Amino acid sequence: MTGYNSNGDVATSNANGHQNGHNGSSNNNGNRQLTADYTAQENHTNNINSQEKIQCYLSTEELRALRVMNEDTYPYEVIQEIADFIVKGSNMRPKIGIICGSGLGSLADIIQDAKVFEYEKIPNFPVSTVEGHAGKLVVGNLEGAVVMAMQGRFHFYEGYPLAKCSMPVRVMKLCGVEYLFATNAAGGINPKYSVGDIMLMHDHVNMLGFAGNSPLQGPNDPRFGPRFPALVNSYNKELINKALEIGKQMGIEANMHVGVYSCLGGPTYETIAELKALRMMGVDAVGMSTVHEVITARHCDMKVFAFSLITNKCATEYSDKKDDEANHDEVMAVAKNRQKACCELVARLIRQIQASS
Ligand SMILES: O=P(O)(O)O[C@H]1O[C@H](CO)[C@@H](O)[C@H]1O
Ligand code: HPA
């Protein structure tokens, strides 16, 4: 069980109910060391329950991730505590939540009067373990709206259950957020898509859901939403239309599409057979995120706008070309190149939301 103490430090209690303090001061150098005895190191730094024994090579961040991963799912009260911590700590009540995709962290850099929270300092928050996901929550002003942006999201393949991956969406809700802007880097399956294009999501195929996995699995807390939420109108049409109009104004309409995204578990990129199958199912772009965040947002009745930056073209035919192999360096490089256009799209859309409210 976890909570946080009055200093905002993470406090864990072990099976015997003994409280342990953790000052969240794990170094950020990502240095790997042979933690031949996890317990010994953790006892030394964090005074944690000595029953856990893991022999492994892990960085300090990964050790913390492992600990957070093994915690219980998040009850309403814990999410409320996290939200209170952010609202009090920033003295702001955000209306729009933004999740920055791989390499798209600069979406948060355009926020003004920003109050930045490192994930590891937020009580009960998971940590980012993926390159291109800085692990910071930024609260501030953007185009006249108070926004909160996650520079770094949580993925299933990092080892977090889906409910934990999308838990920050519920934090957003309890902070007062009405709109979720979810962004991602994705592979283009639709042959008409080019690298650098932006696909506005108007639907998704939930492959993890097909396999029996959902962020809403387990007891339903009606304070968030209903047991059986409908998803047919998940992606807000008005926002899609506004974004298309903005695309025209920016002169990028030829590089903008409206399409269907699918999330696979990763961390492997897809095989040719899988990509062929996805295409036959009507999928236009594929990634390893976003869908569970959208489900969680719709469950608690947030308006959703989401887009994919096409960072690579997915091959759907067999060939020997090395170019056909997706890689994360390429994903981040393309995202970096296109971050200006993505930032502008987000900023202009927020301006319009503000103007019409
Ligand atoms: O969806 P985001 O977080 O943008 O990241 C995408 O990029 C990574 C693969 O390169 C995967 O994590 C995939 O989901
Ligand atoms: O081709 C891809 N597949 C899955 N996830 C991705 N994220 C960026 N590109 C891809």
TrEMBL record:
| Catalysed reactions, as listed in the record | 2'-deoxyguanosine + phosphate = 2-deoxy-alpha-D-ribose 1-phosphate + guanine; guanosine + phosphate = alpha-D-ribose 1-phosphate + guanine; inosine + phosphate = alpha-D-ribose 1-phosphate + hypoxanthine; 2'-deoxyinosine + phosphate = 2-deoxy-alpha-D-ribose 1-phosphate + hypoxanthine
Q: Where is the composition biased (Polar residues)?
A: 1-12
- Which residue ranges are recorded for the region named Disordered? 1-33
Q: What GO terms in the biological process aspect are recorded for it?
A: imaginal disc fusion, thorax closure; nucleoside metabolic process
The record's GO molecular-function terms, alphabetically, read: purine-nucleoside phosphorylase activity
- Composition-biased stretches, type Low complexity, lie in 13-31
Task: List cellular component terms (GO).
Answer: cytoplasm
Describe the location of the Nucleoside phosphorylase domain by residue ranges.
95-351
**Superkingdom, taxonomy of origin:** Eukaryota
Kindly state which keywords UniProt assigns to this record, in alphabetical order.
Glycosyltransferase, Transferase
Entry EC no(s): 2.4.2.1
What Pfam family is a match for this entry?
Answer: PNP_UDP_1
PANTHER family per record: METHYLTHIOADENOSINE/PURINE NUCLEOSIDE PHOSPHORYLASE (PTHR11904), PURINE NUCLEOSIDE PHOSPHORYLASE-RELATED (PTHR11904:SF9)
Family recorded in the similarity comment: Belongs to the PNP/MTAP phosphorylase family.
| NCBIfam families per UniProt | PNPH, PNPH-PUNA-XAPA, PRK08202.1
The name of this protein is Purine nucleoside phosphorylase
Please tell me the species this chain comes from. Drosophila willistoni
Organism placement in taxonomy: Eukaryota, Metazoa, Ecdysozoa, Arthropoda, Hexapoda
Recorded name of the encoding gene: Dwil\GK12508
